[in-house]
Every structure is written in C-alpha cells, then in structure tokens.
Amino acid sequence: MGISLSFLGAVGTVTGSKYLIEIDGARVLLDCGLFQGFKQLRLRNWAPLPVAAKSIDAVVLTHAHLDHSGYIPLLVKKGFRGPIYCTEGTRELCAILLPDSGYLQEKDAEFANRHGFSKHRPALPLYDQADAEAALERFSAVPFDTERTVADGLSARFLPAGHILGAAIVELSCAGRRLVFSGDLGRPNSATMLDPTPIASADYLVVESTYGDRLHERRDPEEALAEVINRTAARGGTILIPSFAVGRAQTLLYHLQRLKAAKRIPDLPMYLDSPMAIDATELFCRHAEEHRLSQHQAEVACRVARYVREPQESKALDREAMPKIIISASGMATGGRVLHHLKRFAPDPRNTILFAGFQAGGTRGAAMTSGAERVKIHGEYVPVRAEVDNLHMLSAHADADEIMGWLGKFERAPRMTFVTHGEPAASDALRHRIEEELGWPCTVPEYREETELA
C-alpha cells in the first residue's frame, strides 16, 4: 500500500501550511492555510492548487490560525465537498476567524477600489464572508484523544498541542504506519496554555520550526510589559499592541490584568479593538478545561479591557489624545483596524508600537521591528517615529530548546523527520540540531516536493 506526502506550503516560510497525503487513491489535506508576508508568497493564494479541490476527500486541521485554516473557504469555493475534521475548539474558532477573514478581504477590496490604490481594476477579495460561512458547514468536530476514520484506510487522532484553544498534534495512522504532525507546538510552562502532549513514537514526523534558530528571552513577561508601558506613559504616549486575535490577545489581557491589580502600571484605559479577538476572548472564558486558568481567573482577565466592536468607536480611539493601551488585530500588522491605528500613532515619538511574537518576512511587523523608518499602508507611506518593540517571550510557539525538549521525549527515532513551518535559516538550524543531538535522519523539504513513505 503506497503512501505519498507532498509539501504544498509551510516550507521556506511560516505560512500557507498544507500537506497532501495520498494513499491508494484517497487524498487528505492536512491543514489548509493562507500564505502571508512577501508578495511572491501571497500570490500563491491566487494560483491554482497542484491538485483539484474536488479530488480531495477530506481536510484535517491542526488548529484555527489562518496560516493553517484560512484557505478553506477558497478550497470549498473551488469544489471541495468533503468533511473537515478538527477539534471542537478549532471548529468554534474557525467559525469566528474565517467569516472575519472573508469580511476583511471584502472591505479591503472596497477600500482599494474607492481610493484607487490597487493595481487591479477592480480589486477583488480572495473569498468573501458568504464563502467562509458556506465552508463552515463542512466542519466535523472530533474529541481529543479519539481515533476517527477520515478516509479509506486512514484514521486521525488529535492530541493537545498547547499553543491556542483547540490546537492539536495530529497522528495519522494508515497501513500500520504512523505519521505525526506537530502543528504549532505550544510552550511548556505557559502562563495560560497547557503543555504540548509528549509523543512516544512515529514512523514519520513533520515538525514545525518557527523558532528553530533562536531562544525566547528568559525574562518575566510582566516585567517587560510593565517597563514598556511605564516608559511610554511617562512621556504621555499610547501603547498600540498589534496582536494575534486568537491566543496572544487573551494572554496579554491576563498579564495586563495582573499588572493593573498589582498597581505596577498606571491606571490607563485599555481597549480590545477587534470583534474577532473579542469573540475569541469570550470563547477562551468558556473553555477553561483547555487552559491553565480557572473560570474565575479567565473572566477577570477578560474584563480588564473595554471591548470595541463598532467601527465608529474604533475610529474615536484615534481622535482621543489621552494615553491608553490598544490591543488590535492583526499580530503582524497585515490588515484590519490596527492599520488605521498605525497611521495615527506610528508617526508620534511619544507612542510605542509593541509587537508580541513572530513577524514573518515581508509583513509590516517584520519591517517595523527591523527598524524601518516608514511603512506602506493603504497605498501611502507612513513615517515610523514611535518606539517599536517586540516581546518574543509572549510567543505561543515553542523555541528551539523547547522543540528539542519535546522531541527528546520520543522513545525511538522516526524513520524520517521533516522540518517545516519556518524561515530557511530556522528550519536548517533545527535540522542540524536534530541530526547532531538526537542522531535522527532529518530533512528540510522543498515547496511542492513529493516523497514516498515506505
């Protein structure tokens, strides 16, 4: 029984996660994410898939972040009619993220057409909100640690990965062989999320390498947050935090609530300005079984900021000169309301733009954290005179040592380990460590590479 594995994304980049497993005519797509960052990557979202969408029998999702799930509405639009298997947390989060993604693409296209800065006439969304809502009908939730047949001869099991609500390490079993996909590994001893599940064995392993070449700063995140906030408040500035709506926003609220309660920061007004992040935060409070916080702790943390849902209320934040803290999606400043806030706050040296995690190459976040003096937003260049910082210790991704610690719990070496979901330097650095420290056979696959699994 022949099995092939094709890498259709998340190689040479941290986005566009897609792995195609083919076994005796059955086709299953593991993750179905959007490419983000550099234009040449984003153009892949518009290019035809190497396989016809209608020929895919099922999709299995590790978690809900758009670089793993955001292509699903387009896949369905192109003819996919199979089931989409994931955990309940992932299904609920996708019900928030995917329609929001379609809505934002519609609005971005309308804005580009109205202001005439797009090279396309007319600018069109990749998919719209209706496409996303239609795709949600295909989702089927599977409990953690429960084996489910997903195609002829192929079953899947979801194990907690930490990272965000619903995130899973996925074990695929077929013909007596076990393929393990790490998805995005969470961090051991996270303030909010559970540790990633140890895995004893796998015949083949696909492991992420987002931070494969670096370590997170071993510093108290609350101390770092307090320093930035106090420094900015002292000069009468606003702290704008571009944040991933799912996971990072909730962790930030937890730390900010603790700092405020301990009076370690000024009593500045705080705003969570993202309908998607608000919905994800309410979901976080309902799923206390999937994180370290008690129901009470989660609810207290979620109440520390004022929720901003309406566009007019969001715009009012830019007109208000009073120092404040604004948490607004997206985490790499690629779209959404945070762009309007950046246009207002980035030119003023009293303010701080505070990122809180990995910034993929080609994003505004990567440019700003690398010292860019201006960034392009809505067709015009905006000067960056505000302080810019990035608190990597708040990342929900395991760093290089933490990935190696998770790998070290395997009782035997996989036949082959594929290192993916990383920039080239990060993936190769992790490959080198796996070969040198564990003695495992290991490779970094190329985009669209296909390999036969014996």
TrEMBL record:
Which superkingdom does the taxonomy of this entry point to? Bacteria
Q: Where is the Metallo-beta-lactamase domain?
A: 15-240
| Keyword Hydrolase set for record | yes
* Domain Beta-Casp intervals: 249-368
Give the SUPFAM superfamilies listed for this entry: Metallo-hydrolase/oxidoreductase
Q: Which InterPro entries match?
A: Beta_Casp, MBL, Metallo-B-lactamas, RibonucZ/Hydroxyglut_hydro, RMMBL
GO molecular function term, any single one: RNA endonuclease activity
Query: Which UniProt keyword terms apply here?
Result: Hydrolase
Q: Which PANTHER family match?
A: CLEAVAGE AND POLYADENYLATION SPECIFICITY FACTOR FAMILY MEMBER, INTEGRATOR COMPLEX SUBUNIT 11
Protein name from the UniProt record: Metallo-beta-lactamase family protein
Source organism per UniProt: Tistlia consotensis USBA 355
